[in-house]
Structure formats: C-alpha cells, structure tokens
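Chapter summary example.
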Amino acid sequence: MKIILTDRALLKISGSDSELFLQNQLSNDIKKLDNSSAQLNAYCQHQGKIIALFWVVRSEDSFLLSFPLDLLDKIKPRLQMFVIMSDVIIQDVTEDFCQIGLVNETHEDAFFIKDQLSVLLEKYYDKAVNNYESISFWNKACIDSNLPEIFLVTSEKLVPQMLNLDINEFGVNFSKGCYPGQEVVARLHYLGRAKRRLYAFSSDSKIQLGDSLLSANSKSSKASGIVINTVKYNSQYYCLATLEVDYKNQKVILDNEQGSILKRINNE
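The structure predicted for these 268 residues follows.
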C-alpha cells in the first residue's frame, strides 16, 4: 500500500561536517546508517526530553530528516543555532519531495523504517494517479508496529525510554558518545528500569493527541500517561500512549469529560 504523507516536513543537512554534526545532536549512531534504512533518532533538549523524532536517511553526500510538519518552525532554527563554525547547511526541502509511506510493499529506492513500514522520497510523482491509500491507513500501521511519533503538543514532555527507544537500541545508541540530554538518558538506562513505557490502545470513543491517561490505582501526582499517536480507523479509535508499567494490566481511562475506557492491545 502507498500513502502520501502530506503532514511531514523534510530537512536536508549537507556540508563536509554534516555527519559529525548529526552525530553530536541526535541519539542514535549516525555512522551506522546505511543507504537503505531510515534510522529513528530522538532530538532531545538538555534535560533528556524529546523535542522531535527524526527518520534520518542518507542521500548521496547529505542527510534528510523527516518529521511532523507542525514542528518545522521549531526544529529548523534550533538546529541552526548549533551549526556555529561547522561546514553544515540546513535547508527546508519539504516542497521538493513527495514522502510516500509503504506498508507491506517493497521498492528498490525505499528506506526501511520498521516491520513492514518503509518511506519513499520522490522528487516527481503523478498527482493524477489515484492509487494511494488514505493517510489513516499509514497511521494505523504505525500504531500496529509500535512506531512512536512526537508532535508539537507532546514535544519536550517525554524521555526516550517512555517511547521504548532504548529497547534493542532502536532509537538510542548507548555507546556512541555525547549529544544533548545524553547524561540523563544514560542514567535512566543504567540505574533502573523505566517506570513508563509505550503501549497500544483502542477505544470506542474519540482519542486526541496529548490526552492524559489515568489509572485509578496510580499514586502518581501526574497523569499516568499521555497519547502520542492516534487515528480513527473503521469507526474505531486507536492510539499509542505512554503508561506507568505497574498499571498496564489495570483499568485505564482518558482524562476527559467522557472518561472513555481504553483497551490495551497486546502487540508489544
């Protein structure tokens, strides 16, 4: 299945220092990135909270960073701040490419993300060809694959462990060296288990990005979790959300007027 991802921005990072620049800014090991994969990276602030998640791909001598469009005005100037004297050029190339999500489909030029998900970056495509699925199909596939996302409403609220990025070092490499927030992320990794993790849920009622999750048995002064991805698909609502690990098998509701019950989907 092919889906045009109209809600994603794309930045091009070029220049002789571009790899070193990204290595010093992002959570994963850019040096290990091959030419056929989209590497998931957390871009953190100094307290270890995730500002954005990037799909990073190599493009000839440059790199392309794909992330939600609503973060573009926040991300581009922030990255630019850290260029300083380096030979790094940051360009917004969102309008120069069509980002196409592939589900259970292969293409020689696509970049593999996770499970059956890949992304294709095309400079030219025929808008008249009507063989693309709804973006809801992609969003549902991301939830099925436990592929997290950060939008403006959830930016700077979560550490990588809450999104399971540390598991098998999917989005965090613990031996690559320093990057903003690295000390906090490493300390959480080496000194104890994560208290909150990422889970998939379904509901008969509407779920919105940034909604809080509550468990009646939780003694936390904060909400038990937060919704980070959501989609309505075939009249049912689905989401990925963080939740306190100790209450993952107990009753969980949304903190809204309806107090909608969430049913956990065991796809971890």
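To summarize the output: The mean pLDDT is 92.
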